[in-house]
Structures are given as structure tokens and as C-alpha cells.
Design goal:
By secondary structure, this protein is an alpha+beta fold. The chain is built from 2 helices and 7 strands, in the order αβββββαββ. Strand 4 and strand 5 form a beta hairpin. The protein is globular.
């Protein structure tokens, strides 16, 4: 079973030779950042050494596919903040998504 933590997703990509895109949606940013996990590397999509900020999830997914990603996870922070849940060891929740 897939372990939906950052470390678990990296291990899954490395051991199963999967290409995974983690699409971050930091609560205060209102944009999307893409981290691509390949068998031998983990890197954010950058342009001129700066992490690219995408204005829509569709743009983020499209660019991740260009980098070879086959599986996609939306990484959201403060998922349970309104419920008053206790703090988790993981900063993000990793939700599987698929492009249209």
C-alpha cells in the first residue's frame, strides 16, 4: 500500500520506478508549485534557478506531464485546521489527483 507521506512517495517512486509530481498549494500563496520525483532525483520545476509558480492547477499538471510525471498528488497544508485537530508530523496531506 502506498504511504502518502513525502518520504513514502519518494521511496515509492525510487523502488517502483514511478514518476510522481507533487503539486503544492500553500494556503497563503494562491498559486501552485510542482516537485517532480523521478527514480534518481527529486526537484522542483524551476526557471532561471527560481521555482516556477503556476496560476492554475491545470497549468501545474500540464507542466508536470512535460517532465514525465505519471502520478500526481495535490499537497495541501492546514487540511484539518478548521476542525481543531492536533498537529500532525506531516506538514502536508497528499491527495491523489488525475489530469483531465
Amino acid at each position: 500500500m502506498l504511504n502518502n507521506t513525502h518520504e513514502g512517495l519518494i521511496n515509492y517512486a525510487h523502488t517502483e520506478s514511478k514518476k510522481i509530481a507533487l503539486i503544492y498549494s500553500p494556503i497563503e500563496l494562491h498559486e501552485y508549485l510542482v516537485e517532480v520525483i523521478l527514480k534518481d532525483s527529486v526537484k522542483f520545476i524551476k526557471k532561471n534557478n527560481e521555482i516556477v509558480q503556476f496560476h492554475s492547477i491545470a497549468d501545474a499538471l500540464s507542466q508536470a506531464q512535460k517532465y514525465g510525471a505519471e502520478e500526481f498528488f495535490l499537497c495541501v497544508d492546514n487540511t484539518y485546521d478548521e476542525c481543531g485537530s492536533t498537529a500532525s508530523a506531516e506538514k502536508y496531506d497528499y491527495i491523489p489527483i488525475s489530469p483531465k
